[in-house]
Design a protein that fits this description.
This protein has one helix spanning about 5-30, and strands spanning about 35-40, 40-45. The protein is an alpha+beta fold. The protein has one domain. Strands 1-2 form a two-stranded antiparallel ribbon. It is elongated, with a radius of gyration of 15 Å.
Length: about 50
């Protein structure tokens, strides 16, 4: 891949991940379930 193609690909991947994270958070709120995240090398449970 050329650097310009790689940069464009990276932007598309990041946009897709942001959309997936937004959908995940919305899903967890709708179901009133706990979201598990890693923060400062510790597992944290985030309640809705």
């Amino acid at each position: 891949m050329k650097p310009a193609e790689q940069s464009e690909f990276s932007k598309k991947v990041m946009a897709g991940l942001q959309k997936a994270y937004a959908n995940l958070i919305e899903f967890k709120r709708d179901r009133k379930s706990v979201l598990v995240v890693l923060k400062d090398k510790k597992i944290v449970l985030v309640k809705p």
